[in-house]
From TrEMBL:
EC code(s) of this entry: 2.6.1.-
Name of the featured protein: Aminotransferase
Organism: Paenisporosarcina quisquiliarum
One family name in Pfam for this protein: Aminotran_1_2
Domain of life: Bacteria
One Gene Ontology MF term: transaminase activity
PROSITE patterns: AA_TRANSFER_CLASS_1
PANTHER family noted in UniProt: ASPARTATE AMINOTRANSFERASE
Cofactors (names): pyridoxal 5'-phosphate
InterPro entries: Aminotransferase_I/II_large, AspAT/PAT-like, NHTrfase_class1_PyrdxlP-BS, PyrdxlP-dep_Trfase, PyrdxlP-dep_Trfase_major, PyrdxlP-dep_Trfase_small
Length: 394
């Protein structure tokens, strides 16, 4: 048995992957399992983007690029930030990396010293705590309860800040909750962060997936101070259905970006060249497919939400963004004879043949996460199966 480094001793593999593997196993045995675990849009990348990628290859753009990304892609991102957020950035304030996930990883590596604290709201995206720990940092959790729409407040942040706090992570719209912070909430958070002089890591990867009259606001938009202490994280994965291309970016303080670029120059060399050309088209080309996909997610949500909410023992808030539903199912689990939501999830998979993600992986063990990035037919069938399962055992 090899002796592994201390830093990976406590690394927990993604819960999403464990349930997905089990679902795959059942499928291979010929069982008709419906998977609602997906964290990616169920559309192919739009054709104009595919065409741009192919064209770039045919033109010979198949070599290394600058470590922080192609100048033309940085320009496209700068234009996007100006257009959508009304914030002006310089090329020296942008780093393009291998998906938003690896950009975040690089950020924590350059930001954190041993035992530095990072405030992480519960429920959280699974990778935040692991990435903070891998950089030697300590996650400090504060809970956004269902009563506060799974959002944390400025007051909670203030109480959690110590002299070791370096940063707070915000994710709006959120995976897994689908909630969005309002301008007022963000303003209060920005004020607290200014007072304590801490960084704000603003993960805006679901920015384009917003429903109803909800509005996406970046905390960096609120003031010069907020802009200076915020690192915006975003990318094309969810907005342009480009999860496999692995292009994300960070926009923020020049010194941080320089350090991240230097680290990238030794760890990745550059984000995949073809993917960068594809992303230029994603940002500079027509945006109608972005809106089409958004509208499709919204119409599925409208149909599926009331059905899910009417399952006995399911308590669910209506999401305002992203493509996840996060019902609290503790009542349903208890009344159907399971002593934990994890056990309930296991039974949903093996008996009702629906794969969902247990909320324990997001720090919210009374919930489950269902993705509606799948066809309406499958969604309706899956929710009907869950409903029948719960009612038959109640
Ligand atoms: N941030 C959040 C909240 C996510 O849900 C995801 C993907 O699941 C990412 C970041 C990573 O996105 P990317 O595919 O660009 O690495």
């Amino acid at each position: 048995k090899p002796q592994l480094a201390n830093r990976v001793q406590t690394l927990t593999p993604s819960t999403t992957l464990a349930i997905t593997a089990k679902a795959k196993e059942l499928k291979e045995q010929g069982i008709d399992v419906i998977g609602l675990g997906a964290g990616e849009p169920d559309y192919n990348t739009p054709q104009n983007i595919l065409d741009a990628a192919l064209k770039s290859m045919n033109e010979g753009h198949t070599k290394y690029t600058p470590a922080g990304g192609l100048p033309a892609l940085k320009k496209a991102i700068i234009d996007k930030l100006e257009r959508d957020q009304q914030i002006t950035y310089q090329a020296s304030e942008i780093l393009i990396g291998i998906g938003a996930k690896h950009v975040l990883y690089t950020l924590f590596q350059v930001l954190l010293n041993e035992n530095d604290e990072v405030i992480i709201p519960i429920p959280y995206w699974v990778s935040y705590p692991e990435q903070v720990k891998l950089a030697g940092g300590v996650p400090v959790y504060i809970e956004g309860t269902a009563e506060q729409q799974y959002k944390i407040t400025a007051k909670q942040i203030k109480e959690a800040i110590t002299d070791k706090t370096r940063a707070i992570i915000l994710n709006s719209p959120s995976n897994p909750t689908g909630m969005l912070y309002t301008k007022n909430e963000l303003q209060e958070i920005a004020d607290v962060c200014k007072e304590a002089n801490i960084w704000i890591v603003s993960d805006e990867i679901y920015e384009k997936l917003i429903y109803g009259d909800a509005q996406h606001i970046s905390i960096a938009q609120l003031s010069d101070d907020a802009k200076e202490r915020t690192i915006i994280i975003n990318g094309v994965s969810k907005s342009h259905s480009m999860t496999g291309w692995r292009i994300g970016y960070a926009a923020g303080n020049k010194e941080l970006i320089t350090a991240m670029t230097d680290l990238a120059s030794h760890s990745t060399s550059n984000p995949v060249t073809t993917s960068q050309y594809a992303a230029i088209e994603a940002y500079n080309g027509p945006q109608d497919t972005v809106e089409e996909m958004r509208a499709a997610f919204e119409s599925r949500l409208e149909i599926i939400f009331p059905k899910l909410a009417s399952i006995p023992g399911f308590k669910v808030l209506k999401p305002q963004g992203a493509f996840y539903l996060l019902p609290d199912v503790s009542e349903a689990a208890k009344n159907t004879g399971y002593d934990s939501v994890d056990a309930f999830v296991e039974a949903l998979l093996t008996e009702a043949n629906v794969a969902v993600i247990p909320g324990s992986g997001f720090g919210a063990p009374s919930t489950i996460r269902l993705s509606y990035a799948t066809s309406l037919d499958l969604l309706e069938a899956a929710v009907a199966r869950i409903d029948t399962f719960v009612r038959s055992k109640w």
